[in-house]
Amino acid sequence: MTDSIKAHPDEPHDQNFAERLNWLRAGVLGANDGIVSVAATVVGVAGVTNHTAPIFTAGMAAVIGGAISMALGEYVSVSSQRDSQHALIEKERAELIDDPEAELTELAGIYQAKGLSEQTAMQVATELTEHDALAAHLSAELNIDEEEVVNPWHAAYASAAAFIIGAILPMLAILLPPEQIRIPVTFVAVLVALALTGTLGAYIGGSSKRVATLRLVIGGALALAATFAIGSLLGSSGII
User: What gap in Å lies between CA 83 and CA 199, rounded to an integer?
Assistant: First the structure.
């Protein structure tokens, strides 16, 4: 451990810290999706009927379909990112084999552009190349660590799990209370949950907690109100 790290033990010097924050932020967003989309579904159906069976069926369909959709979308997205990372790594590996001198000069130029003198930049590039040439170029040029290429399966599992965790709340809120209060209970539970996750998401991202929370709560309230109104309209019109 260097003296600078020892001097500031509370600072996140772990190089994976930003990656973990991104995963945590994605988990919060996934939970929000589960809360809002499933709540909107069950509230909409509850606007049509008070019977528990159709509400439960629609809610479970929303949970399963939403979790699969989230997992699939994340898998496809992260797979594309992983393929791009692998391609860049192989390209850099080939360039180091074909023309190592040019690559050394390029690496030194990168550090010189960051403010080092020409002599110091070449010394740094030379020492890093002797230690691990590929890692040095991947870090300086592409900000990639060969050992930390993203895993699409991990992303898919995490996304689906976050969605399901978020979806549990509206399912319980709509099914457990007596029929006459299940709608207001669901509204309150969902908006409180969105306020909490909005605050957490803002804290993780370093943004304004008030603005992020209000934005999320207002959006969730509008979604619930709209689906309940549509369900009530369809139920009273006799269409359903």
Answer: 34
